[in-house]
Amino acid sequence: MEKLTTRKQYDEVKARVESLIAEATTKGMLEPNMDNEYTQEIALLSQQMSVYEDEYLNILPLRQKSPLIASIEDYFYAHGMRQKDGARLLGVNESQFSQIMSGRRRISMPFAKRLRSKLGIDANLILDYA
């Protein structure tokens, strides 16, 4: 697999993938579980794009909600709290809290300590998933 190293290469590959998707769709070649020249090339090019995105674009991959975030949400639900109430309780502004909850911002040590003291979240859970 050829590695993409420039934004120009990435943009060209992205345009090719979009073109392949459009062409394959009109020909009915993108149905679930199909394995053909379109799906194979799209998969290969998408992998190249993914590697480039990881290394150069700082795009966070889609991921499942961590058990820590789920615990925070469970606490708020059980106590009838909204996100802005949680942000206030934990001593951060709503924007920072939103970024933490969506995984776009890392949990700082002071914030981790407040999760433990204010919400009673298990320290091991915090250490494992923060």
Overview of the molecule:
The protein has helices at residues 7-26, 37-57, 67-78, 83-90, 94-102, 109-119, 123-129. The chain has 130 residues and is mainly alpha-helical. It is elongated, with a radius of gyration of 21 Å. The mean pLDDT is 90.
**How many β-strand runs?**
0
Shape: elongated
Cα(first) to Cα(last) distance is: 34 Å
**How much of the sequence is in beta strands?**
under 5%
Q: Structural class of the secondary structure composition?
A: mainly alpha
Q: Count of DSSP helices? A: 7
Summary keywords:
mainly alpha, 130 residues, 7 helices
Give the secondary structure arrangement, pairings included.
Blueprint: H1 7-26, H2 37-57, H3 67-78, H4 83-90, H5 94-102, H6 109-119, H7 123-129
Helix pairs in contact: 1-2, 4-5
Give me a quick take on this structure.
With 130 residues, this protein is mainly alpha-helical.
